[in-house]
């Protein structure tokens, strides 16, 4: 859904010029730079030109820069690999997002994200000629200025620059609230009250620096300035202010202030998903906290390091950090801290599929939350207990936990909690094949996410609406929902969300028998899963690549993909996934007339399916084994199947022969 913003006459003129320029550049490479510092205005403009051009037979595509390695060439190559139509003489336009969110400060690396981007652009003229379509690159004013200075060859090669300006009323509403992944790129996007406060702080700093550049008060003023920018999600500006705090703290040997500032720098980068850089700052905060014996800061920093490790899917490392935090919280009798850390330990156990352990941690957290009457956190823990019940396929139990969570979220007017719980109730209804009810819950969730401008939540709910449409075989509708989810995931730099949605777009293409397109989507998902160390995602995508290869009758390739999927599922203890992959590997072996291997693989599938007591999967396995035994009768194999099913061989033989 696009936030509609009424266009000024100036912006309408620029938009008209952009549309005409794109139309004149169809089926040839032209680079158009669109400059806009206002997120909602930018979304409106993109929606306007995509709709107009689509009506004129020009297909719009979007892609995003990876801030870890921001390269226009790589972004376009990846997009083309997933959309082979772009290689043919198709009328298309590609919009590139993400440049405005690149940081100018270098953080803990040799080059800033912006510097990497400018360097990648400077000598790309020849390599970009492979693309035969116009490209619109959206930039903030600050990034456009840096690009002109640091990539002059690229700047001189551009085909046009289009500048869009936000009016006063738009600026006042720009960033309330700001979701993770967005940041204000310049001070013109701050609200009036914040702007006045910030201007006052900057004036005080200027006056004090004029009077006494060594004044200890500068530390406090820069810290307040950084906090003010951070509250407005002006992340780049906050980083600059906090860097000044560090300089002042070092001059005056204020070690506690250094530690606090490193912690705040980590918080900003955590908001922006720059996980590797986050870790560096938190480690520096922790070293000083240990040096100054600040136990509370040690505990909260260990906790935050746990969150970073969790985001990087380093679950054992996350568990170790949380345990260190918990030990200090018990020592200092920090009951609220103990509840929060037990909750996070439960999430880690859940992600490692240690469900009994997860429940124990959640119950410890819940006991403390009830003791301290922390209603909001109780709702969150009931929510997580619902998710564990879901994983154990105890759907009615899950629904009961979610209803408890929802009741508290409504009682405390927690709109985000309500949205999240409606979403999970939708998941439960979906699992129970109650698709109409699922859609109703998802719509309730989506309405709140739009109301609160929760972009990540919107992406997740669009994704699930796509899943429901897919289950109902409404593939074009599913694809439309996934595209909405993907656009937001690119906009917010949600790499895990991008991978998951590329995967589902692959599933839709597979259902439509567009196998090459499916493979391209899966490859794109896999690249991100490897980048983010998402082992479960890798396993699922290797499995689907095996399915595609199987459909294309590339059986040895399919076997190799399935083996990669199986190895990863064994590593992550994904028993359901193992059964599914053993089943598919059995089918490949059977197709290749390797009957002994097929027998062994089908038995492995049956063994795990019986262990998990999954009736749906058992029905599929039993039906397949009946067919297999009819085609390849073997008394020894039949005896092994009988033993697993706890039936007499003669009784089973009668069933097979029936």
Q: What tags apply to this protein structure?
A:
Rossmann fold, Serine Threonine Protein Phosphatase 5, Tetratricopeptide repeat, 658 residues, globular, mainly alpha, single chain, 72% helix, 5 strands, five-stranded parallel beta sheet, 32 helices
Structure in words:
The protein is globular. The protein contains 32 helices and five strands. Among the domains are: 9-174, Rossmann fold (3-Layer(aba) Sandwich); 454-573, Tetratricopeptide repeat domain (Serine Threonine Protein Phosphatase 5, Tetratricopeptide repeat, Alpha Horseshoe), CATH 1.25.40.10; 590-658. Helix content is 72%, strand content 4%. The chain has helices at 9-24, 39-55, 72-82, 113-122, 125-128, 141-150, 152-157, 168-172, 192-211, 217-231, 235-251, 255-271, 275-291, 295-311, 315-331, 335-351, 355-371, 375-391, 395-411, 415-431, 435-451, 455-471, 475-491, 495-511, 515-531, 535-551, 555-571, 575-591, 595-612, 615-631, 635-645, 649-657, and strands at 30-35, 59-64, 92-97, 134-139, 160-163. It has 658 residues and is mostly helical. The model is unreliable at 168-186 (pLDDT under 50). Helix 15 (315-331) packs antiparallel against helix 16. Helix 3 links the parallel strand 2 (59-64) and strand 3. Strands 2-3-4-1-5 form a five-stranded parallel sheet, sandwiched between helices.
């Amino acid at each position: 859904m696009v936030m509609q913003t009424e266009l000024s006459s100036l912006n309408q003129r620029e938009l008209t010029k952009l549309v005409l320029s794109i139309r004149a550049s169809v089926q040839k490479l032209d680079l158009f730079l669109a400059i806009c510092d206002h997120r909602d205005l930018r979304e409106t403009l993109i929606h306007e030109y995509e709709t107009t051009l689509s009506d004129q037979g020009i297909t719009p595509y979007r892609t995003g820069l990876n801030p870890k390695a921001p390269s226009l060439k790589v972004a376009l190559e990846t997009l083309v690999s997933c959309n082979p139509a772009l290689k043919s003489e198709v009328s298309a336009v590609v919009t590139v997002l993400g440049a405005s969110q690149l940081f100018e400060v270098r953080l803990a690396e040799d080059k800033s994200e912006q510097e990497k981007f400018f360097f990648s652009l400077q000598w790309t003229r020849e390599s970009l000629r492979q693309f035969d379509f116009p490209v619109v690159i959206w930039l903030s004013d600050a990034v456009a200025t840096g690009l002109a200075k640091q990539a002059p060859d690229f700047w001189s090669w551009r085909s046009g620059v289009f500048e869009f300006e936000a009016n006063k009323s738009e600026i006042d509403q720009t960033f309330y609230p700001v979701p993770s992944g967005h940041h204000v790129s310049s001070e013109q996007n701050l609200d009036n009250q914040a702007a006045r406060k910030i201007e006052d702080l900057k004036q005080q700093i200027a006056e004090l620096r004029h009077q006494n550049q060594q004044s200890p008060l500068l530390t406090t003023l820069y810290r307040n300035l950084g906090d003010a920018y951070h509250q407005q999600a002006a992340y780049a500006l906050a980083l600059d202010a906090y860097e000044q705090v560090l300089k002042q703290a070092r001059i005056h040997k204020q070690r506690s202030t250094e530690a606090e500032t490193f912690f705040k720098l980590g918080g900003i980068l955590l908001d922006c998903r720059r996980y590797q850089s986050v870790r560096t700052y938190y480690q520096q905060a922790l070293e000083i906290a240990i040096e100054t014996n600040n136990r509370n800061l040690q505990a909260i920093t260990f906790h935050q390091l746990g969150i970073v490790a969790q985001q990087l899917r380093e679950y054992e490392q996350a568990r170790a950090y949380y345990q260190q935090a918990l030990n200090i919280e018990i020592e200092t009798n920090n009951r609220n801290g103990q509840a929060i850390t037990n909750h996070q330990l439960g999430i880690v156990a859940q992600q490692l599929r240690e469900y009994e352990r997860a429940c124990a941690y959640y119950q410890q957290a819940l006991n403390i939350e009830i003791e301290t009457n922390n209603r909001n956190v109780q709702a969150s823990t009931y929510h997580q207990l619902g998710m564990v019940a879901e994983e154990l396929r105890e759907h009615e139990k899950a629904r009961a936990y979610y209803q408890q969570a929802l009741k508290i979220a409504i009682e405390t007017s927690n709109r985000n909690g309500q949205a999240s719980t409606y979403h999970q109730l939708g998941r439960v209804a979906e699992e129970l094949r109650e698709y109409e009810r699922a859609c109703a819950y998802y719509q309730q969730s989506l309405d709140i996410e739009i109301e609160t401008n929760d972009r990540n939540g919107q992406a997740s709910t669009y994704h699930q609406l796509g899943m429901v449409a897919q289950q109902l075989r409404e593939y074009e509708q599913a694809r439309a929902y996934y595209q909405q989810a993907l656009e937001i995931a690119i906009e917010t730099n949600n790499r895990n969300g991008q991978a998951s949605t590329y995967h589902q777009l692959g599933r839709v293409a597979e259902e439509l028998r567009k196998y090459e397109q499916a493979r391209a989507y899966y490859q794109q998902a896999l690249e991100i899963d490897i980048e983010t160390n998402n082992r479960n995602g890798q396993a699922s995508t290797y499995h689907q690549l095996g399915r595609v290869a199987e459909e294309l009758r590339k059986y040895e390739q399919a076997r190799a993909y399935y083996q990669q999927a199986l190895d990863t599922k064994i590593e992550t203890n994904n028993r359901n996934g193992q059964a599914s992959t053993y089943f598919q590997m059995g089918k490949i072996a059977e197709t290749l007339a390797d009957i002994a291997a097929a027998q062994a693989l089908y038995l492995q599938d049956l063994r795990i399916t019986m262990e998990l007591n999954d009736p749906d999967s058992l029905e599929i396995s039993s039906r397949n084994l009946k067919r297999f035994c009819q085609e390849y009768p073997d008394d020894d194999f039949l005896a092994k199947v009988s033993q697993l099913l706890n039936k007499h061989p003669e009784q089973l033989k009668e069933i097979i022969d029936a």
